[in-house]
Amino acid sequence: MRLLLDTHIWIWSMQASDRLGKRTAHEIKNPENERWLSPVSTWEALTLHAKGRINLPHDISSWVARATAAFYEAPLTHEIALAARNLPWDHDDPADRFLAATAQVLNLTLVTADGRLLGLGEISTLANR
User: Fold this and answer.
1) How far apart are the first and last CA of the chain?
2) pLDDT digit string, tens, across residues 43-77
3) CATH number for the domain including 99?
4) Total of domains in the chain
5) How many angstroms separate the CA atoms of 59 and 86, rounded?
């Protein structure tokens, strides 16, 4: 399986693994699965840190390098931007739109606990269970 981790799943996998469901934790650790991360998630994590909603180490650059090292980097392309704008659902969070469109365009399975992102039709999702 080719997994694209939603931002909160990525953060939980590093900081609060007890929040991951058994299947989610198993699939993330399964060496047969590819793990993907969007730079949108890095931006979102840094924004959450700046707002005081999560705590990251003082050396942000080193943290980003370590936290993203085990993942394929999903590109943010013009095709993904177009797909994000054209998603047929009423959800305005730009990060969620980019992540859903990335999964759609790159044929990845979006791993999330966000009910608004589950069951998006042609976008493959894996619920945090």
Assistant:
1) 16
2) 999 999 999 999 988 899 999 999 999 999 999 99
3) 3.40.50.1010
4) 1
5) 37
Nearest CA-CA partner of 67 in 44, 37, 47: 37
pTM: 0.93
109 near 126, Cβ under 8 Å? yes
Q: Give the tokens for residue 110.
A: 């979006």
Give the pair of three-digit tokens for residue 55.
């705590």
What is the distance, to the nearest Å, from the Cα of residue 40 to the centroid of all Cα atoms in its chain?
Answer: 8
- Segments forming the whole domain that contains residue 33: 2-127
Q: Where are the beta strands (DSSP E) in the chain?
A: 2-5, 34-37, 72-73, 109-112, 125-127
Nearest to 96 by CA among 77, 115, 79: 115
